[in-house]
Sequence to fold (65 residues):
Amino acid sequence: EVLECYLMTGEADYLLRIVVPDLPSYERFLKEHLTRIPGVASIRSSFALKQVRYRTALPLHHVGP
Fold:
């Protein structure tokens, strides 16, 4: 389920990007995996409603001599 995991600064310690087919699967993932990890004191979730823009190319412009 976990596609990406980031160590964060600020309020959250880690950011996980996961994919599950539906909300019951997400609930199962939380109960069977995340909440069983020692040291996990709280979990905050957010859901993307719609993809507005997606790019993978970096906007780097090479300035030549």
The mean pLDDT is 91.
